[in-house]
Amino acid sequence: MKPLRFVVIGSGYRSLYYARVAKALPDRFELSAILCRSQRKAALIKNQYGFKTSFSLRECMGSNPDFAVIAVKPDALFSVLKVWALLGIPLLIETPAGNTLEDMNEIWKLHERGSRIMTAEQYFLSAPHAAAIRLVESGKLGMLQTLTLSCAHNYHGASLIRRYLQIPTDEPFSILGNAFYYETEQTDSRYGLIKDGSLADDVRKCAMFSFLSGKSALYDFSTLQYRTRIRGMHRMLRGRQGELMDEKVRYVDANHETHDLRLRTVRGEAGGVESILLGDETLYTNPFPESGLTVDETAVAEMMEGMRDLIDTGRELYPLKDALQDAYTGQLIEDAISHPGHIVQSAPQIWNH
Fold this sequence. Notes:
This protein is of the alpha/beta class. It folds into two domains: 4-120, NAD(P)-binding Rossmann-like Domain (Rossmann fold); 124-298, Dihydrodipicolinate Reductase, domain 2 (2-Layer Sandwich), CATH 3.30.360. It is built from nine helices and 17 strands. Helix 4 links the parallel strand 4 (67-70) and strand 5 (91-93). The radius of gyration is 21 Å and the shape is globular.
């Protein structure tokens, strides 16, 4: 299997994920360069991390990449994406898939004209969520009813809500939202632990979804939740025959016998997730067990591997219409939260047809 050659457009925190994946899986991926804004930034990343860098757009385009990763700020996404899409290069773009509804519509039109674009929405591939989604697909919980999700923000949360409840992208819904403001002691950050007792503003955003099918979801997430030692990630999914509550699974089988089990994570010698089991049933298997990648990096690697299918067969691991619906839903979440007491109703979009 020939490694996929790619370039990364953008030199922020997220761009380094793709570089680390390429370094860990050299038989699958070859990083031509990370395209930086300046020679100074290119030199800084190269010296600090040892990754290949460039500050020349022409040089990156001339490296004949199999695909390009667009990892720039959301407000610059469409302008950068359009340049590379018109070159005919398959694209893996960072979330969200469009910063405005106008951009989303234009991205869909590029797709309809033949541009190959996939969004790096990796949460549904992340080990804990992938295992839970497999549980849902097994039918053990029966007809799905309600979900409370406190695991991911905005469009990521929207993606997981659809996956957990098996909601089609064209199903209408309404949202009622609110925000609550607190102070919370800081314990962790992107740059390390915090032990000085400092407080930070913590905004908890809540949004209640009502879907046309009768299913419902409560989105609940705070600004500090990704990086804190005192706020956990939670999920509660209920169906007619059972429920998933964090790692706890309860259900009744076809013989009307009840079961009370836990999802069990199996880790390798280095501490990485190898698999997730429910009893004797394997719900998740790490596709890159010896790579040393983290859970998040493994999910990103799966998205990158998905580009191989997109290039060879046109199959989308995460369909663009799903990504656009997630981004659109994220905007509706913020709209509902900004107008407490006002019900926000979804509307059909061009990718729903």
